[in-house]
Amino acid sequence: MMDLGQTVAEVAPFRAKRSVSASVSNAMPDALYWATQMSAVSVQRDRVSFMRIYDHFAPRLQRYLRNLGVADGVADELVQEALLTLWRKAHLFDPARAGLGTWLFRVARNLYIDHVRQEPHWLPVQEGLDRLDHAECDRRDSQPESFIDQDLLKQAIDRLPPMQAKLVRMCYLESKSHSVISAELDMPLGSVKSSLRRAFAKLQGSMRAQR
Amino acid sequence: MKPTHHLDDATLLSYSSGALPAALAVVASTHLECCAACRAHLLDADQIGGMLMQQQRVDAPAHAAREVMLALLDAEPAIQQAAPPPDIVEEHDLDRLPSALHPWFGHSMRALRWRRVAPGVQRIRATGIGGGDLMLLRIAPGSKLPLHSHGGSELTVILDGAYDDMLGHFGPGDVADLDSGVHHQPVTSPGLPCICVAATDAPLVFSGWIARTLQPLFGF
């Protein structure tokens, strides 16, 4: 009980600060902000920074998992596990490769495939691919340009034609295969793929524009 | 091994979102292991997923949930465990199958136990994969497959040997990620058998090129 009391006292100043900015809680802090928080978690094991990350991402990860059809209780556990993974592996986060949102999306998606879809081989394969990319970066001794402008990608998503936007959301937020999307929308498989391809090209263009 | 035929962006989106049926995902992973270009595209796709996840409007987390999270941190050991050393992979070990295939077919190409399914065609089917159908195929050198098109989703990656069709030359690491409606007629190269891993997303209806090729011969 003592421990818990101390913990609350520790985060109290942060919570006070947070309530001031409550009106912008849906605003997205930039990549540099998250890189700084992650560095504090990794180097100083800073719980205040960790809880800043938690406060922003936990509800979004929870919503994401629930949209995929994960039951509430399981979604809560997976969110906790994703954030614990962040706490344990903060030193592996490389802001030059991808933003924190992307990193956490990968973690949550992998947990979903592992726990909910019960594909035990997915996780080791993803870890293997990750190691290849790290090795690649080391070998080239150069990093891909960091900090893609999140606003430009966001705007590009908002500007997608309605059908492309719908397909991208069915793909990511409902995790539906091309065949399922094709059947549900009564749309030929080839059209589903070509629409997704066009959407990807546009979004990728927005990310590459600043590189 | 630097592939010249890559994954379709639509397939990468599906892989990134976790929606690609398991059998197709194994074949896509096989290509990703040897293709830095597709891994870079995958990262772009993951950024889209990350943004869509963040764009959702949500409420602040409940006080109780924050307390649970903090209690979980208390239970964590203070010292981080060192990361396990990365696998050391012999890059030129020709006998080694790609990692993504290990759970389904083992590690060694030589140790595979092929089953003849038609003249010049041997096959091993993966068992117990949930989504779709996954198989290894070994096709004799210089074989000409009948003209065919693709039904549902089908992915093929060449592991050894090669074939040519109207779309070009497919060698080790190359992926054939073809749209339905593409008619082609692969001819395996002389010399070595063409060994590939193929997946379809339809576990019961065999509609892909390999199936169509073999169906009349074998009736499976």
Descriptive account of the structure:
The complex is a heterodimer of chains A (211) and B (220). By secondary structure, chain A is mainly alpha-helical. Chain A has 10 helices and no strands. Chain A is globular, with a radius of gyration of 19 Å. In chain A, 35% of the residues are buried. With 220 residues, chain B is an alpha+beta fold. Chain B contains 6 helices and 9 strands; from the N terminus they run H-H-H-H-H-E-E-E-E-E-E-E-E-E-H. In chain B, strand 1 and strand 2 form a beta hairpin. Chain B is elongated. Residues 203-207 and 216-220 of chain B have low confidence and may be disordered. The chains are: A mainly alpha (211), B alpha+beta (220). Chains A and B meet through helix 1, helix 3, helix 4, helix 5 and helix 6 of A and helix 1, helix 2, helix 3 and helix 4 of B.
What order do the helices and strands come in, and which of them pair?
The complex is a heterodimer of chains A (211) and B (220).
Chain A: H1 2-20, H2 31-44, H3 47-67, H4 72-89, H5 100-116, H6 122-140, H7 150-158, H8 162-173, H9 178-185, H10 189-208
Chain B: H1 9-17, H2 22-34, H3 36-55, H4 63-75, H5 102-105, E1 115-118, E2 121-125, E3 133-139, E4 154-160, E5 163-165, E6 168-170, E7 175-177, E8 187-188, E9 194-200, H6 209-218
Antiparallel strand pairs in B: 1-2, 2-3, 3-9, 4-7, 4-9, 5-6, 5-8
Helix pairs in contact in B: 1-3, 2-3
DSSP strand (E) fraction of chain A?
under 5%
- Please tally the helical runs of chain B, counting DSSP H or I stretches of 4 or more residues: 6
Give the terminus-to-terminus CA distance of chain B: 34 Å
**Helices and strands of chain B, in N-to-C order?**
HHHHHEEEEEEEEEH
Mean pLDDT of chain B: 84
Question: How many helix segments of chain A?
Answer: 10
